[in-house]
Write a structure and sequence with these properties.
Layout (H helix, E strand, L loop, with lengths): L8 H9 L6 E4 L14 H29 L2 E6 L12 H21 L4 E8 L8 H11 L3 H10 L9 H11 L11 E4 L10
Parallel strand pairs: 1-2, 2-3, 3-4
Helix pairs in contact: 1-2, 2-3, 4-5
Length: 200
């Protein structure tokens, strides 16, 4: 158990791995407060940077030599569909997660010949506790109940429901497996068709 945002986290993780071979890693963090851009202050941005970007970069700088040693690795970041299509009241999350996608894409180019893949999953609305802050914010903005806000969100998704964690996990499992070696540098949406862009 460790706080991922503390300076010694990457070093302590390396110690826990010890001399064992590292095949892959799933990198994820909870989101910052739901706010519109003009509701934020500079401290919000500093905190979001530490929560969503800084530790991930430091972790990759520390773990990459372990992957390169084996000429194999699977790196998978979990971010958000907001990196492809902004979501209201997620200014902090959208901005810093976009930076993570930039890091992931760059690393994928630098590490591809080493047998190391780097990808991003961009989940949309899934039936998890992480969405409660957004339903609560929508309920406040519209003057409706949280349950009504949830229903409105579901109706905005073409499949008319929230995603199931098992559906998301199946894609993550594939991208972390040996048979995904020809997929790298990709940001893959899992959003029930909610994204309006031609390339998902």
């Amino acid at each position: 158990m460790a706080d991922i945002t503390t300076p010694n986290f990457p070093e302590s993780l390396i110690k826990q791995i010890g001399g064992r071979s590292l095949a892959g890693i799933l990198i994820n963090a909870g989101g910052p407060p739901a706010k519109a851009a003009l509701e934020t202050n500079i401290n919000d941005w500093d905190n979001a940077y530490n929560l969503l970007l800084r530790w991930k970069v430091e972790l990759m700088l520390n773990l990459t030599p372990l992957f390169k040693k084996n000429h194999y690795g699977r790196v998978l970041f979990i971010e958000s569909t907001s990196v492809k299509q902004p979501i209201e009241n997620l200014a902090l999350s959208t901005s810093l997660r976009l930076a993570v996608v930039g890091v992931a894409k760059t690393l994928s180019q630098e590490l591809a010949q080493e047998g190391i893949t780097v990808n991003v999953i961009a989940p949309g609305s899934h039936d998890t506790k992480a969405l409660e802050r957004l339903f609560f914010r929508k309920s406040e903005d519209l003057g409706i109940s949280v349950e009504q806000a949830k229903k409105l969100s579901e109706q905005a998704i073409p499949v008319k429901r929230l995603g199931r964690p098992a559906e998301f996990a199946s894609l993550a499992t594939f991208l972390l497996s040996p048979i995904s070696g020809f997929i790298t540098g990709q940001t893959i949406s899992v959003d029930g068709g909610a994204g309006k862009g031609i390339f998902g």
